[in-house]
């Protein structure tokens, strides 16, 4: 079983144990609701509750889903001054996982991500344009396979607020977002097997961050 799945099972067992032990009240576990406090502040990305994943067409008949299991980064949000908003994300290219080891080996190789030469995928924002109270367009530069291109993510805030029920290092003042965009893999120098694999890749990033400064 992949280590990422073992970790997920361990985290689930931990939460279950905390509930059973009374450290996380059962009432908190039973009543889920979105927190709507202010998301303003500077945050550290929580790698255990964040995920970068993608979908891509396969053989003209289906869609393949993959993910990256190692991500880090920081972000700052200021509702009164969106020009100050910044996002910096780092992803280990070798952590790609499509639930098929043979395919993952090929994806790490020179025909695709070439992780030995280009070990890190990065995104650095250049500006944020709000679209309503809880959404916006995040402009920035994505570096993938050693190629840097301008991209625009559609961002939606999920929630923000104090989460006291979770133990350290997961609890505290948290905020979360989901972001999506579409790229062409050929624009990043990955054009192998064009007749079998689609050129358009739909990227999804789910972020949960722990506030480190107001």
UniProtKB/TrEMBL annotation:
Q: Which Pfam families match?
A: YceI
SUPFAM superfamilies noted in UniProt: YceI-like
InterPro entries, per the entry: Lipid/polyisoprenoid-bd_YceI (IPR007372), TTHA0802/YceI-like_sf (IPR036761)
Coiled-coil region list:
none
The protein depicted here goes by the name Polyisoprenoid-binding protein
């Amino acid at each position: 079983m992949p280590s990422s799945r073992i970790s997920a099972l361990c985290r689930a067992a931990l939460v279950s144990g905390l509930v059973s032990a009374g450290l996380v009240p059962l009432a908190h576990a039973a009543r889920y609701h979105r927190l709507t406090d202010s998301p303003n502040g500077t945050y550290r990305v929580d790698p255990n509750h964040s995920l970068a994943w993608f979908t891509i067409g396969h053989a003209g008949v289906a869609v393949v889903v993959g993910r990256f299991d190692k991500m880090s980064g920081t972000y700052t949000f200021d509702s009164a001054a969106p020009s100050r908003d910044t996002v910096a994300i780092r992803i280990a290219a070798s952590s790609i996982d499509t639930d098929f080891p043979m395919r993952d080996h090929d994806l790490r190789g020179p025909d695709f991500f070439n992780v030995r030469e280009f070990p890190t995928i990065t995104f650095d924002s250049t500006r944020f344009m709000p679209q309503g109270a809880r959404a916006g367009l995040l402009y920035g530069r994505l570096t993938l396979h050693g190629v840097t291109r301008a991209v625009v993510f559609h961002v939606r805030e999920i929630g923000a607020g104090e989460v006291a029920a979770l133990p350290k290092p997961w609890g505290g003042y948290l905020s979360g977002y989901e972001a999506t965009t579409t790229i062409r893999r050929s624009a990043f120098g990955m054009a192998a097997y064009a007749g079998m694999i689609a050129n358009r890749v739909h990227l999804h990033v789910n972020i949960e961050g722990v506030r480190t400064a107001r």
